[in-house]
Specification:
The complex is a heterodimer of chains A (394) and B (291).
Chain A lengths: L7 H17 L9 H7 L1 H11 L4 H10 L4 H12 L17 E6 L58 H7 L32 H10 L2 H12 L7 E15 L8 E15 L12 E8 L3 H13 L16 H7 L2 H9 L6 H22 L20 H4 L1
Antiparallel strand pairs in A: 1-2, 2-3, 3-4
Helix pairs in contact in A: 2-4, 3-4, 3-5, 4-5, 7-9, 8-9
Chain B lengths: L21 H16 L5 E2 L13 H10 L5 E6 L6 H14 L2 E2 L8 E5 L12 E5 L13 H10 L3 H14 L10 E3 L3 E3 L9 H4 L5 E6 L4 E5 L5 E3 L26 E5 L6 E5 L2 H14 L1
Parallel strand pairs in B: 2-3, 2-4, 4-5, 5-8
Antiparallel strand pairs in B: 1-9, 6-7, 6-10, 8-9, 11-12
The chains are: A alpha+beta (394), B alpha/beta (291).
Chain lengths: 394, 291
């Protein structure tokens, strides 16, 4: 009995000790180091950082180790830590135009200034299990003494590469970025970790929530727009992954200060729009951004960002991905996992109330089915009449 | 509740007293003060992640953390019991991060955090009862949209709730809501009293204690200040009724408390015991002395 009348405290303690043992696994296998997770499972680290809303690869790797690889649990650990950190100030907006590009592709142009660069990607790998990796140390690893392939000549590492969107915006073919509904960009952005969300939400708040949103949930919803539930004719205008500087403006100093660099994945979707509501025909955009190498997440986010803008363009908004409250209220996996898992908590007080109701209703139902004189207790309509239960057992 | 700005950390190294930083606690207290000023109104607040999952009492925990002082005595119950696993876990959390004293006696506690019950022992003025709330919006299962329900509250437009209760009567001959039974507060807002059994609803009315409600995942706070009028919704010809038992508690013999049903053997034999463990133990102890 997990809700023992006594002994809950010891049961919890024992469960935690058991968990610690299971997490370690067979002690004959070497223990996993946090640095190994950070270096060799960097995609899991990236996901935990994005959804945990904290850029710290070391702590994300620690969370993954502690959570025995359960990503949602690791995200939760990082969030719970993040919440204890004081907030000093906001950074300047990241300038992804100045990104030191590792990967940059556009599906809308064959060639373009800055070029196409595949970077480290699973794309075009054949998904064949590489049994050579099973041999681990004995098999020659990629030669680490030789540097990785050099960047292409068209855009040497470190050079700023213009966004595809700027090229299109020069012609007026795409809406300008940054001023949804005419809101000035310079206004300090809201912070969903400090102000609760209210509906309808500003786009800045929507993007913050989507950036923390569960990748699986966003992927499924983004996918649904491609299958006709809120179709928005997307092109992957540009996907870029690389390192950007983070600049802070402090009150004490008259100039901004760089605090370091982070790796991000950015996706800009181009979506067809034939005009309307006083706006000319042009491409509209959906935006996605995530920490680390997280292309799938960034793409899904961009599809949903655009889907949620249906109202701005006077589009019909009946599909799930276009329902702001539906998407934003359900995409956070810390919230979702918590509320689903709380069903494991005892509910016997409520269950007792329901039990009584069902018994009463059943009694009445069965009495109504039986012709002839009704049993004396049939009119015990109200109250928990526990003595009249024989027939409900049948 | 007279907290200084920075409290000495009596709890875990590396964490502030009662886990949350003082700025956050102050922000939550501002929300609670607004909630007290507008009884039954749901105040949005910048809810934080807590180290327990959403749905496991994070709203109540944040409310408790923000009002907790060094000399408070904390009682935590779940389903009326002090020793259910989650109540143990929450009590241990506050012991760890705040080092406060805890109690199981309702009369000894200054703050009681609860899930799904109101203690049977009448509360006193000066005590605070903090409810854990899963879905704060009483209209949510009638109208899923927050924009819509916010407008309904603003306009005092609760027709849909009465229609729902009426439909229950038409279909089942009675109001089929057995817990989280909606109430009208101070003649204005319709409020979800959290999933307490409707047996507990009358205790909300003119309660001398301060009743605080925290919904962490939904990021809402609301409150019933002491001695607030609270009416369970009903109809003249179908008045609100509380359930009664024809059995008594198998341990203390109580006939006036909320009873849990236990199945004690393979034949399905049932026994009934008080859901409020403190109530039951206190009564049983008195019974032993007198016999």
């Amino acid at each position: 009995m997990y809700v023992a009348v006594k002994g809950g405290e010891r049961a919890i303690e024992n469960a935690h000790r058991l968990l610690a043992h299971k997490r370690r696994g067979n002690p004959e296998a070497p223990e996993l180091a946090v640095s190994q997770i950070r270096e060799q499972m960097f995609l899991a680290v990236a996901r935990v950082m994005s959804e945990g809303a904290l850029h710290d690869p070391g702590l994300a790797a620690l969370a993954l180790k502690q959570a025995a690889g359960d990503l949602v649990e690791a995200v939760f650990l990082l969030r719970a830590y993040r919440t204890t950190l004081p907030r000093f100030c906001g950074s300047r907006p990241l300038d992804t135009g100045e990104m030191r590009i590792e990967r940059r592709i556009s599906a809308s142009y064959k060639d373009l200034p800055g070029g196409q660069r595949l970077g480290a990607t699973f794309d075009y790998t054949h998904r064949l299990l590489d049994f050579a990796l099973l041999a681990e140390g004995e098999y020659p690893a990629p030669r680490m003494d030789a540097p990785p392939p050099a960047a292409s000549a068209s855009a040497p590492e470190g050079d700023a590469v213009p966004h595809v969107m700027h090229l299109l915006a020069r012609e007026g073919l795409v809406e300008e970025a940054g001023s949804p509904n005419g809101a000035p960009v310079s206004a300090p952005p809201p912070d969903i970790t400090r102000e609760p969300i209210s509906f309808p939400a500003a786009r800045a708040k929507r993007l913050q929530i989507l950036a923390r949103g569960d990748e699986g949930f966003l992927l499924a919803l983004g996918y649904s727009t491609q299958r006709g539930y809120g179709r928005n004719h997307p092109f992957a205008g540009e996907i870029r992954i690389g390192r950007v500087d983070v600049w802070l403006e402090t009150e004490e100093l008259p100039f901004p200060v760089p605090t370091g660099e982070i790796e991000v994945s950015e996706c800009e979707m181009l979506n067809q729009f034939v005009g309307g509501r006083g706006q000319p025909p042009q491409f509209t955009r959906g935006y996605g951004l995530a920490f680390g190498q997280a292309e799938r997440k960034a793409m899904a986010m961009a599809l949903i960002d655009r889907a949620l803008r249906a109202g701005e363009y006077g589009e019909e908004a009946g599909a799930p991905a276009q329902q702001e409250e539906f998407v934003l209220a359900h995409c956070d996996n810390v919230e979702a996992a918590g509320f689903v898992s709380h069903l494991k908590l005892p509910h016997y007080v409520d269950f007792q109330s329901e039990l009584d109701l069902i018994r009463t209703l059943r009694r009445e139902y069965l009495n109504a089915q039986t012709p002839g004189p009704r049993p004396a207790h049939a009119d015990a309509a109200h109250g928990e009449a526990h003595d009249t239960l024989e027939e409900t057992h049948s | 509740m007279t907290l200084q700005h920075e409290l000495p950390s009596t709890g875990m190294p590396g964490y502030n007293f009662a886990y949350l930083d003082e700025t956050t606690k102050r922000a939550i207290r501002r929300g609670l003060l607004k909630a007290v000023a507008i009884p039954g109104f749901q105040v949005p607040f910048g809810g934080r992640e807590m180290p327990m999952p959403y749905g496991w009492g994070t709203g109540g925990i944040q409310a408790t953390a923000s009002i907790l002082g060094l000399d408070d005595v904390l009682k935590v119950i779940d389903q009326g019991a002090d020793d259910t696993t989650n109540a143990v876990s929450i009590r241990n959390f506050f012991k760890q991060v705040a080092g406060v004293a805890s109690a199981t006696r309702t009369t000894e506690a200054t703050i009681i955090q609860t899930r799904h019950r109101i203690p049977e022992t009448p509360l006193q003025n000066g005590q605070i009862l903090v409810f854990q709330v899963p879905i704060p919006e009483p209209l949510r299962f009638i109208e899923p949209s927050e924009s819509e329900t916010a407008a309904m509250h603003a306009l005092g437009d609760y027709g849909v709730m009465h229609v729902k209760l009426y439909e229950d009567i038409v279909r089942h001959g009675r109001i089929a809501t057995r817990y989280a039974y909606p109430v009208e507060v101070n003649g204005r807002y319709v409020m979800d009293p959290s999933p307490i059994p409707r047996f507990d609803n009358p205790k909300l009315h003119m309660n001398p204690a301060l009743l605080l409600f925290g919904a962490g995942r939904e990021k809402r706070l609301y409150a019933l200040p002491p001695y607030t009028r609270v009416v369970s919704l009903d109809f003249e010809d179908h008045p609100f009724e509380i359930p009664r038992w024809e059995s008594a508690c198998a341990i203390c013999g109580s006939t006036e408390s909320y009873l849990d049903e236990l199945i004690v053997d393979d034949q399905g034999t049932r026994r009934y015991v008080c859901s409020d463990t403190d109530w039951c133990e206190t009564r049983a102890a008195v019974g032993e002395k007198t016999t």
